[in-house]
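Hi all, long-time lurker, first post. I run a small reading group and we've been trying to get comfortable going from sequence to structure in the token notation. Rather than ask abstract questions, I figured I'd post a concrete chain and ask someone more experienced to write out its structure so we can walk through it together at our next meeting. Sequence below, copied exactly:
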Amino acid sequence: MRKEDKTAIIGSLGELLKEYPHFYLVDSTGLNAEKTTAFRRLCFKQDIKMTVVKNTLLQKALEAAEEDFSPIYEALKGTTAVLFTKVANAPAKMLKKNKDTGIAGLKGAYAEGGFYGADQLDNLAALKSKEELIADVVALLQSPIKNVVSALQSGGNNIHGILKTLGERPE
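-- Answer (accepted) --
Happy to help. Here is the structure in token form:
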């Protein structure tokens, strides 16, 4: 491979690192052409960008990035596919749900500002996305309001019933 080609690949990987806040490194040793195509389709449906790269080129792109990705360098061995995503837990959920993808396993990940090892697929799948956290906060905020509104509505019915009973009572 020519030096210009390597520089272009490192540059495109750098752009992907800027565009996508989370990435997973997976072992793609067992992927043949058919399984690779099927896995790419699966990634596309989940809005995940899959790229198979040379480890040295990926490391150079990570070194050129603004953040310190050095803890993940040890995972750059063997055949590596990178899954870039905007939702931190999407690739982990996909890998757990679809065990027959041909992916040998997780090598490492960078998600939500932290580094995860190969043994932490369950922890990554349990991470909540930004949208899920916002939905949880909104639900928590709405819960007391719903209780107050329902108490006021039921209280209004009770007061109305009491007043009606008192009005119908003979003097």
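A couple of things your group might point at:
The two ends are 103 Å apart (CA to CA).
The chain has a mean pLDDT of 83.
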